[in-house]
Amino acid sequence: MNNTANIEKVYNLVGHDLSLQDLSLEYGELLEANNISDLKKMNLTDLVKFISGSQYYQNVLNILARILVAKPHSADVERLISTSNILKSIDRQSLSVETENQFLYVHLNMPPLMSWDPRPAIVKWINTSDRRVRHTPKAKQQDWFKGIFEKASNLEKKRDLEDAHQSNKKKNCKIVLKMY
User: More exposed terminus of the chain, fewer Cβ within 10 Å: N or C?
Assistant: First the structure.
């Protein structure tokens, strides 16, 4: 609890969802309290417990509670190192630093798989570049099939006859049209 504290910086870092005006008013009132010297001597946990008993300083309580909970722990670092060691197995030695960083970011920051909705990610991936639509004919229509199976060559002959018949119809139609 300091008179020269920059409330706006604290607000931007931890409490951007709260009202800045209410926060600075509550902090100013708290600094003018009769027992401010006792409050300044308290550690953060005790200060949060003390302020939670009051109904007047809810925004300050919110900020202090967030700071108390966000205290850094070595467990996060240990978890990161452990995941990195598992990731860099013999099969994955050639991963680039960028790929490893992306994997670790996803592993540590994303929600559990059950609560993740993949649709926005899929839409983004689809829209990132043009996708080639592959037209793959059925096996009976492919060249390799014709040389192996008699049925395919019979189908090809039948298709050729139909095509010839269609082209003859078109020629006859053109001849009739030219006559008129």
Answer: C
Chain segment 12-59, per-residue pLDDT in tens: 888 888 888 888 888 888 888 877 888 888 888 888 888 888 888 888
Shared domain for 20 and 45, answered yes or no, is yes
pTM metric for this prediction: 0.40
Query: Which of 50, 69, 88 lies at the terminal end of a domain, its last residue?
Result: 69
Structural domain contains residue 20: yes
Q: For residues 175 and 166, what is the distance between their CA atoms, to the nearest angstrom?
A: 14
Q: What is the 3-state composition of the chain as percent helix, strand, coil, each rounded to the nearest 5?
A: 70, 0, 30
Closest CA to 42 of 2, 5, 6, 1: 1
Question: How far apart are alpha carbons 97 and 104 in whole angstroms?
Answer: 10
The token pair at 43 is: 């550690």
